[in-house]
Task: structure prediction
Amino acid sequence: MLHTPVIIMIILGDETVRCLAPCLPGPALSVHQRALAAWRSLPQEVQLQWNALVWNVEPHRPPFDHSTRISGYNLFVSAYHGFATLGNEQVPEPRAFEKFPPFAVEVGGASVVEGLLVLPVSVFIAAAFVPERYRLLAKIQLTQPGKGRNPGKMRNVLADRPCGSSSVNLFIDPSI
Result:
């Protein structure tokens, strides 16, 4: 039976701006362990720079009133995971998070190519924001028709190329 693609959330990521998506390619535990080791290897001055950045971070979990904050350690690990998600695992430098530009997404149908579900997606970002700096990271779950979503089974799918004037493709292996 053919699965129905459901796109729940779209996140734009950029290799020069920290992508805070927590999902990883490959074994998540080993990437997380490398992130922890990288944090421990940072000089204290750099750790303090990360701690100073947390004051301007928008909360992504309740309460959303800034009464609680993410730690510099968690911000660093999130940035490390983001680079790993983008296929560019590295030790991030302390840098303030830049807000993403306004964008719109349009899915242009679906097809199957060599057993992979292919979704062509147009991402519209104003040229003033240099769309080529960003890549589309989609959270996707394939379900049986009429079935609801299960947040624990969401998968990250990174577009095949940076956003720009033409559409990008999401290649999804339905067997995973």
